[in-house]
Amino acid sequence: MMSRIIIHALFIIFLVGQVNAQETATKNRKYKTWIKKTDKTRLIGRLYDVEDTKLGISNSFKAESSQFNYIDVYAYEIEKIKVRRKGQVALGALIGLAAGFTIGAITGFMEGDTPPDPPCQGWGCYNGVIDLVPESADGKALLYGSLYGLLGAGIGAIVGGAIKIKIPINGSESKFRANLPRLKSYAYQK
Asked: Do the Cβ atoms of 187 and 136 come closer than 8 Å?
């Protein structure tokens, strides 16, 4: 049973990597963008396109949508740009879930079976105690794997959401041009 759980966990981790690799090869990546302007205002949107002295931020990637809004932000207006790939939070949660489940399952199997309690006899003995931890190693592996998996998914979502690529511009067109290839690689329209 232990080997089956470990094989399944490794398969899930392998599958996550394959799905992520396939997405990057076939899809145009979409990035959420946070722009802090030199006047201390902030813009949040999608990095739609990048030109020599400006970048375009939109609320959607579908230009034919009736609710499509597009804003040009010039290099001299930008203090800092932060970008994060769409789906990064979900990917972090999935990786955390797989890692947490694997660690929990291994912990449950390492703890092993719990020997049965001796029968209770005598005055004041109460046999109706509810034990939440299973006695078998398989049950412990499933319980610990589930709990650690939920914990790992939460931590993975937090970490995945916190990872943003930061590009300081400080209102300088030369810094903007120096980061132009990098910014173009994050833009929806190439």
From this structure: no
pLDDT, tens digit, 9 for 90 and up, residues 24-50: 433 556 788 899 999 999 988 888 889
| Neighbour tally for 7: CB within 10 Å | 10
Torsion of CA 95, 100, 102, 106, to 10 degrees: 160
End-to-end CA distance of the chain: 50
What pLDDT, in 10s, does the model give residues 90-101? 999 999 999 999
Alpha-carbon torsion (40, 62, 15, 151), positive or negative: positive
Identify the pLDDT of residue 146: 93
pTM of the model: 0.62
Question: What is the SS3 string spanning 61-100?
Answer: CCCCCCCCCEEEEEHHHEEEEEEEECCHHHHHHHHHHHHH
Q: How far apart are CA 134 and CA 1, in angstroms?
A: 15
Pairwise CA distance, residues 175 & 70, whole Å: 23
Assign 187 to helix, strand or coil: coil
Spell out a b/e string for 109-121, using b for 16 or more CB atoms within 10 Å of the CB, else e: beeeeeeeeeeee
